[in-house]
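Today's session is about reading a structure prediction critically. Students often jump straight to the picture, but the first step is always the sequence itself: look for stretches that repeat, for charged clusters, for runs of hydrophobic residues. Only then move on to the predicted structure, which in these notes is written as discrete structure tokens rather than atom positions. Here is the chain we will use throughout the hour.
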Amino acid sequence: MKIRRIVCLAAVLLAVGWLTTSFTQGQEMTLSSQVIERVLPNGLKVLMVKRAEAPLIRCILAYRVGSVNERPGITGISHFHEHMMFKGTSSMGIKPGTLAKDMDYDRQIDALVDKIVEEEARIKGRDDAKIVVLKKQVSELITRQKAETINSMEIFSAYLNAGGTGVNASTGNEMTQYYVTLPKNKLELYLALEADRLANPVFREFYSERDVITEERRMSENQPGMFYYEQLNATFYAASPYSWEVLGWMSDISRVTKKEMIEYRGQFYRPDNATLVLAGDLDPAVVMPLVTKYFGPLEAKGKSPRVRTEEPSPEFYRRTIGANFKPPYIEKRVLGRAAATPEVTVMFHVPPLWHDDLAPLYMLGRAMSARTGKMYLDMVLENDNATSVMAMASNSMYDGSFTVSATAKEVKNEVKIPLDELEKELWTYIENAKANPVDAPLLQRVKNSVEAQYLQSLAGTGIAGSLARMETAYRWQFIEEQFKQRLAVTGEDLQRVAKKYFTRDNCVTGVLEREK
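Below is the predicted structure for this chain, in token form.
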């Protein structure tokens, strides 16, 4: 290692607050030396990391399921299911001694909803008055059920009363995760609750929660430019299930049925499709018997389906048909108008995160976006035609994207230069990435920043989130491999991938105008 690099790394470590304080003295600062992996016979993977600085454990249960696993008709169901996992089980979420009564209410509500669905499906002769009466009956039953049997905050309360913090869940394109930080002596409570939620969910309050989900969708629609961005994404991903947002299409989430959710859950909420990540003051010799006690009895039969559809990009055609095949020229554009700041976006199709080209693509995005890079210095500072610029490669499990965008400078709600001129200016920097290697000092600054962020990600219990994400998308060991790949790239590597993917027949261009 060169002296200059040693000094540079030392400065980075000091700047981020001497990140190594979370490691024991003399411990090797590699990810592989810190993670303890175990796999139960039913396929549940357990990843443990010791962090003894506080008597706490960060707990994440991540499932390999998200919006990419959905299909037209049930888009948004992964996010909806995340909400339902807080509604309880056969032993949680209800008042003592009311399980039978609660189940009876569910049967009555389901039967009425089936009649509503049947009546609404009539193409001719639909009785709207009958639907109104049925919906009123459903509403009355839901109100009575909530008052008489439901204790909807019981799971939250159990964690909070145990000293838990950060109790929540999230759904993405590829992963759904449930997380909390607990005192180390409450780990058994966590394992008992999560195993119960996996094995014995009860989707009570299903239809009232469906209304909550649809309202969440409506709120997102109020955000300026939301419909434009949704359609831009849907145009970019013509075949891949990345084409719809995590919230799903309104026509699906407002009509999804409990039966469809139960079937969907059976496919993906399984021990062999999950990863349990624990980071904190833990002893694996104590943890694993508890994990086995609660999760070991859960069965996994068959396999969760995987996404098969790939985006038909030029690179896909060359890979599947032949290197000499000339792909059809297809260039797509989306024009939008909204009460939002005008911008130009260019999206290119790129491979998934495990591909060898992703490291240089990622670093190219960082370099192009840098405030010391030519695109920012020219477009934002010198020419003053944009207020911001961005370039970024995705880190996707399946089909990926590389996005370059510029937000237009406005003076009295009028763009300083026409958007077609801004688009041409943006393309000059895209073409420059193909014609010239990235400046060596700039690339080194980017590498320094990437290194600092990586070291920071290994510190404390925050490592749990990184492990959950990468194990779900690929395998956790790739966190370290990916970091090394990024630091090893050269300016020529960045130029090579720019030439390979930055073509007009491999992109979708979006232009957002301000609505007058």
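Discussion point for the tutorial: Residues 59 and 278 are 5 Å apart (CA to CA).
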